[in-house]
Every structure is written in structure tokens, then in C-alpha cells.
Specification:
alpha+beta, SH3 type barrels, Alpha-Beta Plaits, five-stranded antiparallel beta sheet, three-stranded antiparallel beta sheet, 10 helices, disordered N terminus
Length: 318
Amino acid sequence: MNMSESTLQTTPVQDAVADSAAAPVLQLPDAIQELARPELWSVQNLQVVGVVAIRIVLIFALAYLLGRLVDRIVSRWTRRYEDLPVLAPTRQRALTISNLIASTSRYVIWPVAVIMVLSELRVDVAALIATAGIAGLAIGFGAQTLVKDVISGVFLLFDNTLAIGDRVRIESSYGIVEDIGVRLIKVRKFDGELLMVPAGELRIFGNTSVGFMRAVVDVGFAYKEDVTKVMEILNKIARDWMEANPDVLKADDPDVLSIMGFADSALTAKIIVTVLPGEQFRAEREMRVAVKEAFDAAGIEIPFPQRTVHLPAGLLKN
């Protein structure tokens, strides 16, 4: 091989560079001219674009109307239970199911609408769905907490252990359930704070709106008082309250427990009345007022902490 032949040989990289340099580069004015070609704006092409645009608008409009229709049906269905008491199980379950149906419909309608729009734009939906399935599998491994929350929320709804309007205790917090979603539960505390509780984290909780509750009033009286007399007064207070509020009772007789403990300056008794859920707070308040008034009328001392101080004799003389 002579020197002239070696100089004529080129590498593949050099060939690619030469080809790219030789290819025409489409500048901005050329792109504008390309878009301005008459055949691109022919009547036939414009008709195709118009039909696709109309179909896309119709798809989104139908999705919106379908969502509104579901909301209207759910609202009309729940309106049938508005006259029931707030804590009625039927009313609570209706509100809970209505929220679930409304949220689920939104999660279904709009993704289907987006897929239909992509199909109108000639996007390969099958390949897109397959890719989304693989991506969803990968995301599922990374978002196990989210999946756990959704599954726990579904089972929580169908187990009927929680409903909107229930008074619940979550760890050390007390509040009223305002909303139950597939993933998140909202609880309004009594001071107004709104707790956001993922369903997967709601493993152990207390529900004070199921079955019955007990109004418990602890009563302290002085050691010097007659225990029999005090028990008679407490029994009368409990029975008088039950006769005045027969519509909230869940048991016919009260439980008035005698001496429950020996405190530093008092004996302790207890009044227990079984009532409907949510009525225990009013029952306890009213019976405490009745105990104070009855003890004052009978001259029974409600003790308070006292301390006896012994002073040296010499200090008293001074």
C-alpha cells in the first residue's frame, strides 16, 4: 500500500461526520415554510383535524357529565337518610358508601377518558397500557405503603367497623370521623384539629359510637358521712335522671357502686348508667350537678384535700 492509498482511506467516524455535514439543516425559516405548504392545510386534512378535535372535546365533556351524574345520583340517594339521627348506623353507612362511590367513579372515569383521547390521537394504546402495567408493577414495589393503605381502606369500609360521624379514639386522640376515603381517613378532634390518618396505619382504634356507652360519675364524700345515706341519695339521683331521659337508655337499672376506694381525704362511690352512644357526656354532666345539689341539701360534705400542721409549743407561745 502506497502513501496515496493510505491517505484516501477514512474511518467510520469520519464518514459519519462527513455525512452529517453534507445533510441539509432545517433552519427556523425553512420550518415555517414547511408548515406553510398548501397541501398541509388542505380541506381534507383540516376536516380530519376538526373531527379529531370534536371527538376529544366530546370525550372530555361526556366524562365530566358522567361524573356529575354519579354525584347527583349519590346525593339524591343520601338525601333519603338526612332525617335520621346523626349517629344512626343506616345514615352513617349511607354517607360512607356515597363517599366511596363518588371517589371511585372519579378514579375510573378520567383515566378511561384519557386513554380514549390518546386512541383518537393515534397513539398505540395497547403498548402504552402494557408499558403502564410494567411501570405500575415497578411502582407497586416502591409504593407498598400506598398499596397497603388502599387495601386496608377497602376492607375497613366493607367490615363496617367505622362510619362517618363516629366518635373514635386513635392512640391518644379523640375526635369525630368526617370523611372516609379509599386511602385516607379524616378525623376532627374536639379542639378543631383535623387528623389525616392513612388507612394502613389504623390498626388499633376505639369506636364509641357502636352499641352503647356507659356514663360513669365518680363521687367522693367525707369519711364521717353515713355510707348508707349517701348510697340512697346516689340511687335516687341515678333513677331520677333515667326517668327523665328514657329515650337514651340502653339498660333499665343503674349501677350505683358503694365504696370503690379509700382516698387521702374521701371515700369514693360510682354511678354507672348505660346510654346510647354520644349521650354519656350529657348524662355525666347532669348527674354531677344533681349530686352537688343533693349533697348540699342533705348537708353531706364533698371533701377536698386537707393537711394538719403541728407546730412546736414554744412557737405557739411566741
